[in-house]
Model the fold of this input.
Amino acid sequence: MSTAVTNPVVDVRGVEKHFGSGTNRIHVLKEVDLQAHAGEILMLVGPSGCGKTTLLSAIAGTLGVEAGSIEVFGQALHTMSGGALTRFRAKHIGFIFQQFNLIPTLGIAENVGIPLLIQGVGSREALRRSRAALDAVGLADRWKERPNKLSGGQQQRVAIARALVHEPPLVICDEPTAALDSKNGEIVLELFRNVARSPGRAVIIVTHDNRIFSYADRIARMDDGEIVEEKIQTHEQPPRFIHEHAIH
Ligand SMILES: Nc1ncnc2c1ncn2[C@@H]1O[C@H](COP(=O)(O)OP(=O)(O)O)[C@@H](O)[C@H]1O
Ligand SMILES: [Mg+2]
Done:
């Protein structure tokens, strides 16, 4: 599929962001330009503290920026009011946070169903779809349990199921494989690949995880608040998860 002629799914132009004040003021995003196109997995890489999570939060509409514009599916986020932005995000964006953000007092199927309930899906249908999403990440039999009964990797998979359950056209993930072993990492990357290959959808992944780089269609490298390099990957070989023993 040619993506050159389509409008980008995400269009970040000249974005600026500082944190702190006085002598503690730091320049976190410096005239950042970045596009993500339908049909692709875009990976954003760079050293800790370079601004990756800040940029993802701005794209997800959870963090305002000081200058520049961010359009998602042609909608300029800064022009939307709070309620409209919340509805837009709920429908269009699935977000996997670095810290998972699961609700401890709810069972994991209830956690996964939250985006569906926000959209007005009935509770029985929400439960059915949540269990199917948990099945896709290998956790079907745990659906009644609370998050604290699960390992870090299992919690991460619950967060992934929650981000995918409502089939949002844009999936944004902050270090989605950090806590996963090879087998589950591979399952999750195949899920992301299916998202990116379905019409009009895209996946943006922040990652340090060199086991997954071959799944990227494009890699943007960030350093000290700037995008310093962008590389398109052609897949002469199908992407594959590199198992630990192959790296060492
Ligand atoms: N809410 C915040 N308040 C103040 N400083 C922050 C905040 N969030 C991030 N920072 C700082 O901004 C810089 C970029 O952070 P972050 O986007 O989390 O980097 P990365 O995800 O690449 O590790 C870091 O120096 C971090 O300490
Ligand atoms: Mg981060």
The radius of gyration is 18 Å. The pocket of adenosine-5'-diphosphate (ligand 1) is lined by residues 19-20, 26, 28, 46, 48-54 (CB under 6 Å). The longest helix spans residues 182-197. The domain at 10-247 is CATH 3.40.50.300 (Rossmann fold).
